[in-house]
Amino acid sequence: MARLVVVEDDGFTRMLLCSQLRELGHEVVGDAAASAEGIACVRALRPDALIVDLDLGRGPTGLDVAHAVRRMLPGLGILMLTSYIDVRLIGDFRPLPPGSVFMVKRTLNDPAVLSSAIDLSLASSTGPSTAPIAARSVALKLRDGQIEIMRLVAAGYTNAEIAKERHIEEKSVAKAVTRLLDQLDLKVTEQRNPRVLITQAYYAFIAGLAEFR
After folding, report:
1. For the domain that residue 25 is a member of, what is the CATH number?
2. Do 92 and 63 form a contact (C-beta atoms < 8 A)?
3. What is the DSSP string of 119-166?
4. Which residues contact 15 (CB under 8 A, 6 or more apart)?
5. pTM for this structure?
6. Which one-letter DSSP state was computed for residue 41?
7. pLDDT value of residue 21
8. Which residue, among 45, 201, 44, 47, has the nearest Cα to 137 in the 3D structure?
9. 108, 145: one domain
10. Distance (Å, whole) CA 61 – CA 21
């Protein structure tokens, strides 16, 4: 049994998650809806592990919380739950805190998977962070710059605007978009606009889908 703090901004999801954790035999010593509240819970309650959603709405993210509590408690288990198959899709390119476990929510259809993820976070709190559990996707193979270009294209930026944002030449953006289409195996036709294809792929990755065609 582990003493856990849960940080999840959606009240219904947080209630279900806490209930599931208790059924698995764990003690939920605290729960919070926002980053500051979650960090305060960890500081006050000193749990064995933190379970935190990556997307906490407006303001600091679950990644901010994870880095803060790792500095506070180096031996704390950290399990990050998210619909994103790659944390870089939110535009944050910092590495995960050492020893943290990253798990895609749609894999939580079996309580045993959640239990194993908690055990892994407790066992690896001082080791390297893990790749998303049960979510292998081409997105994980993309470089940081490619992920950022996907995000900006999906946000409606033109090549010129992307070039300005990333401090590179516009022709470099055009080449990067072409390479991205090739790496994602996206076939452009008269009916299939390249920017639409990239946008569709980006939002499929956000939804946690390994396949997007």
Report:
1. 3.40.50.2300
2. yes
3. HHHHHTTTSPPPPPBT---GGGGS-HHHHHHHHHHHTT--HHHHHHHH
4. none
5. 0.65
6. H
7. 94
8. 201
9. no
10. 22
74/166 same-domain check: no
Residue whose entry in the numeric block shows the structure tokens 């379970």? 51
Bridge partners (DSSP) listed for residue 3:
27
Q: How far apart are CA 182 and CA 198, in angstroms?
A: 11
Taking only the tens place, the pLDDT of each residue in 120-143 is: 888 876 555 554 444 445 566 778
| Predicted confidence (pLDDT) per residue in 32-67, tens digit | 999 999 999 999 999 999 999 988 888 888 999 999
Distance of alpha carbon 164 from alpha carbon 32, whole angstroms:
39
**Rounded to whole angstroms, what are the CA distances from 24 to 21, 103, 113, 135?**
5, 18, 11, 23
Residue 169: which domain range?
138-206
Interval 75-85 mean pLDDT: 86
- Coil, strand or helix at 180: helix
In 3D space, the residue among 31, 117, 42 whose CA is nearest the CA of residue 80 turns out to be: 117
Tokens, residue 23: 């059924």
Query: Are 61 and 7 contacting, i.e. CB atoms less than 8 angstroms apart?
Result: no
- Report the C-alpha gap between 158 and 6 in whole angstroms: 40
**Which amino acid is located at 204 in the chain?**
A
